[in-house]
Design brief:
The protein has 16 helices and 14 strands. By secondary structure, it is an alpha/beta fold. It binds ligand F0G.
Length: 458
C-alpha cells in the first residue's frame, strides 16, 4: 500500500480552541455590529481572517529569537537577515520595516509625487491606499481571466502586458515611478504569476525605463506554483526559482508575516544605492534606524530562519496541499469558489452562492456572517465593503466579484479543521434559498471602511 501523505513536521506546542453555541454567536455578532473584525478572538473557533502574522513558527525560529541582538545600531541580527536577503533574493540593499505597508510607505515616500501613475496586477488594498493617499493613481492591468471565477488556468494572477503597455504609452515615463507586480495575486484569489509573465513584465518595464517593484508577500507560494505548473521548472529548487524571479526586479517590498512565517515584520529591498539613500530618511523618520527599522533584533533573526525554511519545497507542499484539500471538498459539495484553489486561501464566490441577494445588501459580508453563525468560522469579505467608495463621487464601487476569503494560516490548523470548514460551507450552501436578506451600513469611516464599519440586519 502506498503510504498516505503527511506533513513534514510534528507539533511541539498546542493552543486551546474555544467552541460556542449558535445562540452565543448570534449575540456576539450583534454586539460586533455584524463586523467580524470587532469579534474577540476567543469568540472565534477557526480563524481564517488572514494568513498574515498568524502562522506558527518552527522550533528553529524560536531558538533564533533567543539569539536576537537588540543593539540600536549595527546589531548582528541585522547582518544575519541581510546575508539571508542577499542570498535568497540577490538584493544588495534593504531596510527593515514593521510590516508590509510600512515598507510601502518608506519606498513610496521616496518614489511617488502627486499625479503619478502606478500600474500593477491588482494592487493590494494597503498598496492602493498608499498610492491614492499621495494623490497618485493605481491602474489595474490584471488579465481579464482573473475575474471569471470558474475558469481553470494555471496562472490566473498575471499582468496583462497589452494593458500595461497602453499605460506606458499614455503617460511620460517621469509620471510612472514604478510598476507593481504582486506575487501571488492576493486580490484575484491568491493566484500565481508565471515566470514567463514576470520576465515579460520586466522586459516591458525595461524598454520603457520604468522600475519593476515586486510586492512579495507570498513569493514562495508563487515559486511553488512555478515549479509545479510551469514547463521547465519541475527540476529546479524553490530557491533557484526565487533567485530567477528577483533577477528581474529592481525593488521588492514584503510583508514578512506571510511567507516569512513570522508574526510581525517586513522590509523593502532594492538594487539602486541612490534610491536606498533617499528611502533611508523615510525609514529613520517612520520606522527606526536602518539596522532595525521597525523590527526587534529577535524578530529579524526569526525572519532570517523563516525565509530559509519556507523556501524549501516540503514546507510549501504541505501548506498548499491543505488549501487544495479544502478546494477538493468544496468541489465534492458543488460549492463555487475562485478556481483553481489559490496559494493561501479559498475565495468563495458569494454572488454564485447567494444569487438572490441584491448587491446593495453586501453579498459577501452576508455570507461571512452566515459562516460565523454556522460554525464560529471567521473569513474576510472581499467585496463591496472592501472596494469602498469612489474617492471623487463617494458612490459605492461595486466590484465584479463578491468573494469571501478563507485564508489558511501556515502550520496552525490540521486537515480535520479543514473538513469542519468544508462541512460548514456545505450546510450554508444547502439552505442558500432561505438567505434572502443582507445588511445595511450604520457607520463607516472615510477610508479603509471595512475594518471599522458597523452594520445592521435587514
Ligand atoms: N501586499 C500584499 C499582497 C498583502 O497581502 C498585504 C497584506 C500587504 C501587502 C500589506 O502587508 O499587512 O504586513 O502591512 N495582506 C494581509 C492579508 C493583511 O490579510 O491579506 P502588511
Amino acid at each position: 500500500m502506498k503510504l498516505p501523505y503527511a506533513e513534514p513536521y510534528k507539533i511541539k506546542a498546542t493552543e486551546a480552541i474555544r467552541t460556542s453555541t449558535r445562540e452565543e454567536r448570534e449575540q456576539w455578532l450583534k454586539e460586533a455590529h455584524y463586523n467580524l473584525f470587532n469579534l474577540r478572538s476567543e469568540q472565534v473557533t477557526i480563524d481564517l481572517l488572514t494568513d498574515s502574522g498568524t502562522g506558527s513558527m518552527s522550533d528553529k525560529q524560536w531558538a533564533a529569537v533567543m539569539c536576537g541582538d537588540e543593539s540600536y545600531a549595527g546589531a548582528s541580527s541585522y547582518f544575519r537577515l541581510k546575508e539571508t536577503i542577499q542570498r535568497i533574493f540577490g538584493m544588495p540593499y534593504f531596510l527593515p520595516t514593521h510590516q508590509g505597508r510600512a515598507a510601502e510607505n518608506v519606498i513610496f515616500s521616496a518614489l511617488l509625487k502627486a499625479g503619478d501613475i502606478v500600474p500593477g496586477n491588482s494592487h493590494f488594498d494597503t498598496t492602493k491606499g498608499h498610492i491614492e493617499f499621495r494623490k497618485c493613481h493605481a491602474i489595474d492591468c490584471t488579465i481579464d481571466a482573473a475575474a471569471d471565477t470558474q475558469l481553470e488556468i494555471p496562472f490566473k494572477g498575471e499582468m496583462d502586458l497589452d494593458k500595461l503597455e497602453k499605460v506606458f504609452q499614455s503617460y511620460p515615463k517621469e509620471q510612472i515611478p514604478c510598476t507593481v507586480l504582486t506575487i501571488t495575486n492576493n486580490t484575484a484569489g491568491g493566484q500565481p504569476v508565471s515566470m514567463r509573465n514576470i520576465r515579460e513584465t520586466a522586459e516591458l518595464c525595461r524598454r520603457y525605463e520604468i522600475p519593476l517593484l515586486i510586492d512579495s508577500a507570498r513569493f514562495a507560494e508563487n515559486a511553488y506554483f512555478i515549479k509545479t505548473r510551469e514547463e521547465g521548472y519541475a527540476d529546479k529548487s524553490i530557491k533557484e526559482i526565487v533567485a530567477e524571479i528577483y533577477s528581474y526586479a529592481d525593488i521588492m517590498t514584503i510583508s514578512a508575516k506571510k511567507d516569512g512565517v513570522v508574526n510581525m515584520g517586513g522590509f523593502v529591498a532594492m538594487r539602486d544605492a541612490d534610491l536606498l539613500r533617499r528611502a533611508t530618511s523615510f525609514c529613520i523618520m517612520n520606522e527606526g534606524f536602518v539596522t532595525y527599522g521597525g523590527m526587534s533584533g529577535r524578530d529579524m533573526d526569526a525572519l532570517a530562519v523563516g525565509l530559509d525554511e519556507n523556501t524549501e519545497y516540503e514546507q510549501l507542499h504541505a501548506r498548499i496541499h491543505q488549501v487544495q484539500l479544502l478546494g477538493e471538498l468544496l468541489d465534492e459539495y458543488g460549492i463555487p469558489y475562485q478556481r483553481p484553489a489559490g496559494g493561501h486561501a479559498i475565495f468563495l464566490d458569494a454572488k454564485k452562492i447567494l444569487p438572490n441577494l441584491p448587491k446593495e445588501q453586501y453579498v459577501a459580508q452576508t455570507l461571512s456572517c452566515e459562516l460565523y453563525l454556522e460554525a464560529g468560522i471567521r473569513g474576510t469579505e472581499i467585496g463591496t465593503l472592501l472596494a469602498d467608495r469612489d474617492p471623487e463621487t463617494r458612490e459605492n464601487r461595486y466590484p465584479k466579484l463578491e468573494l469571501l476569503r478563507l485564508a489558511i494560516p501556515r502550520r496552525v490548523y490540521t486537515d480535520n479543521h479543514i473538513r469542519v470548514i468544508a462541512a460548514a460551507c456545505r450546510n450554508i450552501f444547502e439552505r442558500r434559498d432561505e438567505i434572502t436578506s443582507g445588511y445595511r451600513i450604520t457607520f463607516e469611516a472615510p477610508i479603509l471602511r471595512h475594518f471599522t464599519v458597523e452594520l445592521e440586519k435587514l
